[in-house]
Structure formats: structure tokens, C-alpha cells
Design a protein that fits this description.
There is one protein chain. The protein has a domain of 48 residues. It is 63% helix and 0% strand. It contains 2 helices and no strands. The chain is elongated and about 70 Å long. The chain starts with a helix and ends in a 20-residue tail after the last helix.
């Protein structure tokens, strides 16, 4: 399953991870909270970007499929703002 080189690499990684030296550094509460807040914001931005690029086009396809399936001649509007796909308000 594992080659000899990969076993050796894993062993060296574990040995290097086990050997630690103190950093002799201090991160204050302001810098620590800023770092944590930045990481949370970056993760949230990535998740919202994925939602924006995946969910909204998928929602549009489902809406078009629903109107085609029902045979309804009315224009499908977005229930939040009352604007149809062509930009007209109702």
C-alpha cells in the first residue's frame, strides 16, 4: 500500500513534528482577535461566493423549469422584488 519512500517521508514528518522548540513570541489579545476575525471573514466570503455562483443560477433554472412544466404563460417573477427576468416590474 505504502511505498518505502512514503513511509520514510511519514516517519520524518512525525519526527519533525514531535521535535518542537519554544517560539518565545507573544500574540496579544487585539492581534489574536483580529486574526480570528479575519479568518472567519475570509471563510464567510468564500462560502457566500460559492452560494452566489451556484445557488442563484440553479434557482433560475429551477424557476424556468417550473414555468415550462406547468405551461403557465405568466412571467415568472422573483417574489422578493417583483422584477421578472427581463427587468420589468409588476
Amino acid at each position: 500500500m505504502f511505498t518505502r519512500a512514503s513511509r520514510l517521508a511519514c516517519l520524518l514528518f512525525v519526527a519533525a513534528s514531535a521535535y518542537t522548540v519554544p517560539a518565545l513570541a507573544y500574540v496579544g489579545p487585539g492581534a489574536g482577535l483580529t486574526a480570528i476575525g479575519t479568518m472567519v471573514a475570509v471563510i464567510a466570503a468564500i462560502l457566500l461566493a460559492v452560494v452566489g455562483f451556484v445557488w442563484y443560477p440553479l434557482k433560475r433554472v429551477m424557476r424556468k423549469k417550473r414555468t415550462a412544466h406547468t405551461g403557465d404563460a405568466r412571467v415568472a417573477t422573483d417574489s422578493r422584488d417583483g422584477i421578472d427576468d427581463s427587468g420589468n416590474t409588476h
